[in-house]
Each structure stands twice: as C-alpha cells, then as structure tokens.
Specification:
The protein is α/β, with parallel strands linked by helices. Helix content is 35%, strand content 18%. The protein is built from 14 helices and 20 strands. Strands 1, 2, 3, 4, 5, 6, 19 and 20 form an 8-stranded mixed beta sheet that branches. 45% of the residues are buried.
C-alpha cells in the first residue's frame, strides 16, 4: 500500500522559535503553501518542556514572530527585572506560539500543521499517536529547524551516574518536591542553573544551604544594555559605543574583557574567577547580586557520579547525603552544530545571522527567501554567525555580525525591511531618535562613527593573535570595510 503524499512549497521540520518565525514570514510575504511538522503536541519547541519558572533572558519585545507582538509592552515594576522591559514566562510563550498557529498561520489556508509526528531521513512523517505514515514533498525547500532545538533537563537526563536512593531532580520536579531537604545541590553553570538558584532563594532557601557545582564561570550580558525601546535608546547606544571603545583601547584579550566588565557590558558571578564560557546568557544586576549570595561553589570539574554519601567529580569529591536534593541543570542548552550555508538547493538550514538572535535570524532568512532568487546572493547576505561556547566567541560573533550588517547596509530593500521588523527593533528606533536631533544623541552617534572602524580593526587583530586561531568565517579585511557601512548597527 502506497503512503499518501502531502506536498507543499516548504516543509518545515521543527515548530520551535526558529521554525515558527520562518513560517510566519513566509506566509506573510509569499503565497507559498507550508507544512510544519513537530514531535511535540504544541508549537513552541523546547518551551513546552522547560521548567515552570523559566522566563526569557531578554525583552519580550524582540522575541517570537515578526507579525505578532509578544507581551503588552510594559516595564516591569517589581522583582529582579524591575525597571526593564518585561520578560515573558514560559507559559506565556507557549500560549503565544499556539495563538500564532491558531489565529494567524492556520487561518491563512496555506499552512498544514502536523503535531506529534516524527520525520525520518526519507521525508516520511509518522504519527506518534496512531502510526499513520505520509510522505512529505517540498516543492521549493525542505527546512531543517531541528538543529535549533534547545536541550533542557526534562528531555535530556544527567550525563553522570546517580546511585539508587539519591534524590536527583530536574528543575520541573524540584517545584513539585514536598519533602524537607538537608540542603540543595545545583549541578551546572549555565542559565538553567542560575534560574534554579534564583528560584530557591526566592522561596526562602538559606543561601548557605545551597551547594553550587559550577565547573566553569561564564561571561554574562547585562540586560540593562539590551533594551530596544525608546525609553532606553540612549543607554543602548551608549553601550554600543562603549563596546567599541573598549575594543579600540584594549592592549590584550584579558585587557579587553577587563574593560568590558568595568563598563558593565559583561558581568560574572564571581569576580575572582576567570570565565572560560560565554553563551549569550543575560542577567540583570539585581539577579547577579542574588546569585552572589551563594558562597558554597564547587569548582572540581564536572560531576562523574552522585552516590549516597558523596559526589564524585573530575578533580575530587565532596560529601552529600540521602537527605540532600540534587538538581540536574547540566543539559546541553543551545545546539552547536558546525556552520554551513543557510541555503543549500532543496534544503534550508536556519542559523544565527546576527549574534544571539535566533528569532530575528529566522525571520530575516525567510525574508531573503521570499524576495530574492539568486542563492549565492542570499548566502552572501546571511553568512552564519556561530553559537558561542567560549569567551573568544564574543569577538567572533561581533565580527561576523558586522560583516553581515555591512552587506545589509548597502541594500536599500534590506534596510527598509529591517526598519519595519519588530524582531530587529534597533534600526527603526535609532532612525527615529536621529530625526529628533537631540544633541546628546547626535554626540553619541558621532562617537560611534569615530570609534567603530578602529574598534573592529582591533577586535580582528586580537582574534588573529589569540592562542586559538580565528575561524575563516570570523576574519575581516580591515578598517576600510567597516567605514563604508555608514550608520551600521551592532545588534
């Protein structure tokens, strides 16, 4: 018996933030038919699996899909994000993506939604409910958005042994735990671990009763500097200028990061420990102050095993007990596959085209797909920006983003889309500020123009001389390349 065939112009595998942003722009800017398929029951990707207290790291105003605002545009007045643009909760984000699907994509009449389906390499989708199979055919492109799927503890268990009798919970299970604990042990150094630490402190756990196994320290972005709304425009542009000034004046890589930290552009939980990790995580200064209350930090490498009375690590062991609650926060997080062309004939592989911007990048890629025919031209406009791992990637992301934005600045059609894009925000905001002719804004723009070229030149030089050689996709050719860019933005 032949499998039924479901054909569309685009087949998008993965209905997370990237897949949904792509689909939204394709539906808005073309007449194409789209199939969206995902293993989960609802759109929203990993947000469906995340812990109940999860929130966005950055403002809601630049997350989601281009056509539909996320949140109400408010400024938070209470909590550790007070004074800054709102951060949507996980529940809000899941409801948002379901609303986009039900109220926008499906009513277009051009979108077919296949939840709870697995797709094999042959392009056959199999229902995880009844086993029904159908072959998917993409007339234009097959979009692989699965590479953007974030790993979270509820779906990716610990990579260390856990002895019988040990209480080892995911953050989700932690919220459901109803027994007293002799203490809490957080395993992991990323944003999930930070969120868990803040949740424990918020619920009255004594910071001295928390042990935090943090194998590596991370550089963290300051949320106050990534607020893309009018009330924060001066602060955002000041931060951009300060980044370039720090780069221009840096005498070495350690000096660069010292300058970025002194300017409150990058932060770390423990100022005495040199970070070896950078993953685009964003925290407020209020959150940072809370995290610093936890003093019992273990730096003996990754956990190998948790036994009843001890935790075995790479470089030693510490005591524990059957009455301690251990929280697994060490899932892989952001995917980090090898960089590859975005447009590959019948295949499209969405990746970052601007640093730390998955939703914007996906919508921008879809816009190029909708408006340009030449594949080489499309790939030239969106060279992939790596997902970061280490501090040196801060430089690599900056430089590759600059190369892309230089190319964008030379095209009036792209600039027009950017200034209208909800997910981009900065281009339109900065142009509106420029029209107001505020002297302070004009002075900041002048500083930016003067420092941008030397800043990029110095970043490229520091990267070339770093112990780990720069990757080809991060190389630049010199100051002149950037001075052509006019009002080139850095985010």
């Amino acid at each position: 018996m032949h499998e039924p065939i479901l054909e569309a112009d685009y087949v998008i595998v993965g209905a997370g933030a990237v897949g949904m942003a792509l689909a939204d722009t394709l539906v808005a800017e073309t007449s194409a038919k789209v199939v969206i398929v995902d293993r989960r029951a609802k759109p929203g990707g990993h947000w469906n699996d995340a812990y109940p207290f999860v929130r966005l790291h950055g403002p809601s105003v630049t997350y989601g899909v281009n056509s539909t605002p996320l949140g109400s545009g408010r400024i938070d007045t209470v909590g550790l994000n007070a004074g800054l643009n709102e951060l949507a909760s996980g529940a809000e984000i899941c409801a948002y993506y379901d609303r986009v699907m039900q109220d926008s994509l499906l009513p277009s009449g051009r979108v077919t939604w296949l939840p709870l389906h697995d797709v094999d390499e042959s392009g056959t989708a199999t229902s995880l409910v009844n086993g029904q199979r159908r072959r998917l055919v993409a007339g234009r492109r097959w979009v692989d958005a699965t590479q953007a799927d974030t790993q979270v503890p509820s779906t990716h268990g610990p990579r260390f042994a856990v002895a019988h009798g040990v209480t080892c919970l995911t953050p989700t299970e932690l919220t459901q735990w109803r027994q007293p604990a002799a203490g809490h042990v957080i395993v992991g150094g990323g944003k999930t671990a930070m969120d868990t630490a803040l949740w424990l402190l918020e619920h009255g756990v004594d910071p001295d009763a928390i042990t935090w196994i943090r194998p590596r320290e991370a550089w963290l972005l300051n949320r106050a500097n990534v607020q893309p709304t009018a009330a924060f425009a001066h602060q955002a542009l000041t931060a951009m200028v300060a980044e370039f000034e720090a780069a221009r004046d840096a005498t070495s890589l350690p000096d660069l990061f010292a300058r970025l930290e002194a300017a409150r552009l990058l932060q770390r939980i423990d100022p005495t420990v040199q970070p070896t990790m950078y993953r685009c995580a964003i925290v407020s200064e209020a959150e940072l102050a809370q995290l610093r209350r936890i003093k019992n930090v273990v730096r003996l490498g990754h956990v190998r095993a948790i036994e009843i009375d001890r935790i075995v690590l790479e470089h030693g062991e510490i005591a524990t007990s059957a009455r301690h609650v251990h929280v697994h926060c060490s899932a892989g997080g952001l995917p980090r596959g090898p960089l590859q062309p975005v447009f590959q004939g019948q295949r499209l592989v969405p990746q970052y085209v601007r640093r730390c911007s998955p939703s914007f990048s996906a919508a921008f890629i879809a816009h190029l797909e909708a408006t340009l025919d030449d594949e080489q031209e499309k790939n030239a406009l969106c060279e992939p920006v790596l997902v970061p791992r280490v501090p040196l990637d801060w430089l690599r992301m900056h430089l590759q983003t600059a190369k892309n934005q230089l190319r964008w600045s030379q095209r009036a059609d792209v600039q027009d889309w950017l200034r209208r894009s909800r997910l981009e925000a900065y281009t339109g905001l900065f142009e509106r500020m420029q029209r107001e002719a505020d002297p302070a804004w004009v002075a900041l723009q002048s500083r930016l123009k003067q420092v941008r070229g030397p800043g990029y030149e110095r970043l490229a030089e520091l990267l070339r001389t770093a112990p780990a050689s720069a990757k080809p996709e991060a190389r630049v050719t010199g100051r002149a390349m950037f001075e052509q860019a006019g009002a080139l933005e850095t985010r």
